[in-house]
Amino acid sequence: MSPESDRRQLASAAAQLGVMLDEGQTDALLGHLALLSKWNRVYNLTAVREPSAMLHQHLIDSLAVVPALQRRLSSRQGKNCRLLDVGSGAGLPGLVLAIAIPALEVVCVDAVGKKVSFIRQAAAKLGLSRVRVEHARVEDLQLEGCDVITSRAFASLADFVSLTRRHLALDGCWMAMKAKHPADEIAALPKDIELFHVEQLQVPGLDAERCLVWMRPKPA
Predict the structure, then answer these.
(1) d(Cα 4, Cα 6) in Å, to the nearest integer?
(2) How far is CA 148 from CA 37, 67, 92, 187, in A?
(3) What is the CA radius of gyration of the chain?
(4) Distance between CA atoms of 185 and 189, rounded to whole angstroms?
């Protein structure tokens, strides 16, 4: 697939999702894709091998959460917001969200060195100055005050909230990216965690179920 074809497909997907991207953001997203494709040949960052498949299964899949996240952040009344991406892997969704929402402070954490090296290199190459990258297990991370904590295929919902709870701001929430509606995982959530929304997502060009699971601590 040619770069122009990738650009057209990305523009079409963004339009379908209602995500406004300027030329610089589009270039950055395609730059991320190119770097991922290049590094993946050597470091095996993802099992998806073809750039055209990466475009839909990784890039556009991550971009699909942007409208929901923007709606959530709109209630913050201009406050600077910090998002923690747990098990960020190849910077998914962290780098994509940092590109699409430039005002967002994004912290990407992963325990695998080669993945952390890729995220750092990509963030530097793409000029993402508001991205911080941490090489650590999330339970060992020294970080507080995250307004949103997200993950993409990181762990069960119960493990996700338990491992990251101390990083959450007082009025923060969790945004877990899942495939099918995770009914069993929801049933296993700790009693003091409130699930307040499950949002179905439609990912352009991807024939697969996707949803966002929104959670927060129950009031004391």
Answers:
(1) 5
(2) 28, 14, 15, 22
(3) 16
(4) 7
CA atoms of 18 and 194, how far apart (whole Å): 29
How do beta strands 146-152 and 168-178 pair?
parallel
List CB contacts of 52: < 8 A, sequence separation 6 or more: 1, 6
Digitized pLDDT (tens) for each residue of the chain, 220 residues in all = 578 899 999 999 999 999 999 999 999 999 999 999 999 888 888 878 787 888 999 999 999 999 999 999 987 765 789 999 999 999 999 999 999 999 999 999 999 999 999 999 999 999 999 999 999 999 999 999 999 999 998 899 999 999 999 999 999 999 999 999 999 999 999 999 999 999 999 999 999 899 999 999 998 7
| Distance, CA of 186 to CA of 191 (rounded, Å) | 11
* Residue among 82, 111, 87 at smallest CA distance from 97: 82
Three-state secondary-structure class, residue 72: helix
Instruction: Tell me which amino acid residue 57 is.
Output: Q
Residue 143 CA, chain-centre distance (Å), reads 18
Tokens (6 digits) for 96 = 């994509």
Buried b (16+ CB within 10 A) or exposed e, 87-98: bbbbbbbbbbbb
Residue with tokens 């099918």: 180
